[in-house]
Write a structure and sequence with these properties.
122 residues; 3 helical TM bundles of succinate and fumarate reductases
Length: 122
Amino acid sequence: MMALLARFARTGPSDWIIQRVTAVVMMAYLFFIVGYLIANPALTYGQWSDLNSLLSMRIFTLFTIMAVAFHAWIGMWSVLTDYITVRLMGPKANGLRKGLQVGLGFIILFYLAWTIKILWGL
């Protein structure tokens, strides 16, 4: 069991790779949306609805939102562990940091679940 958990242990290089991969996914989504808007200057609600009802677009959107969630989690973890430290804030820093991590983690999960509900109407 410990070996399985060790495979998923986070390291600096794995966080770096995840940040870069998620940034590429978000950039691809942004380029696609901007390109679609440029290609359809007189975009109607019907066209927009048709685009977003495609399974491929829903999957692309879900992957992008998942990338945002992973990107946000790693970024948030990095900032909190860098700036909410015992050296900077005293002995209560660890509890505060862990509380913020749990709270922000729940917010990220809430937005991910909300996206799934919107995309598939669950």
